[in-house]
Specification:
The chain is of the alpha+beta class. Helices cover 31% and strands 17% of the residues. It is globular and about 50 Å long.
Length: 143
């Protein structure tokens, strides 16, 4: 693969097979070949960017339109009632394929599905106030 090719770009370009669930001009949905549970699906924008913050508004809107529909279909077919949406950005955030993508992972009562030890810490209120103001200003400027 070249520097810009990933397993996802090869799938999008039709160079390798996949279990395709949906495709249009902006996105493709496929079954994950190493699933955490039955129905584990990847929703992939066709736009070749590594992380979510680089994704165009047009591609992001396509993802946003399809995530609920695809999730509903996966739940109906698998019989699962719960699921996770996972999206990683960068090596330290556990991204392993460097093409933005979303995981839809059905969660079953018997434990099949995504599992990880969540670790949180209490919020620092002073830091939160400063961060809130800064993020609001960036959003108002119109990213």
């Amino acid at each position: 693969m070249s520097d810009e090719e990933t397993i996802f770009s090869l799938i999008i370009d039709g160079k390798i097979p996949s279990y395709k669930l949906y495709e249009d001009e902006l996105i493709i949905a496929i079954l994950d070949i190493n699933p955490f549970s039955p129905g584990h699906t990847l929703l992939i924008p066709k736009e070749k960017v590594v992380t979510l913050d680089k994704l165009s508004s047009k591609s992001a809107a396509a993802v946003g339109r399809m995530l609920p529909k695809l999730s509903k279909a996966i739940l109906e077919i698998t019989g699962a009632e719960e699921f996770n949406i996972l999206q990683n950005n960068g090596i330290n955030a556990f991204q392993s394929v460097f093409h933005v993508h979303f995981h839809i992972i059905p969660k079953f009562p018997d434990g099949r599905g995504l599992q990880f030890p969540f670790k949180s810490t209490p919020i620092d209120h002073e830091e939160a106030i400063i961060m809130t103001e800064k993020i609001n200003q960036i959003i108002i400027k119109g990213l």
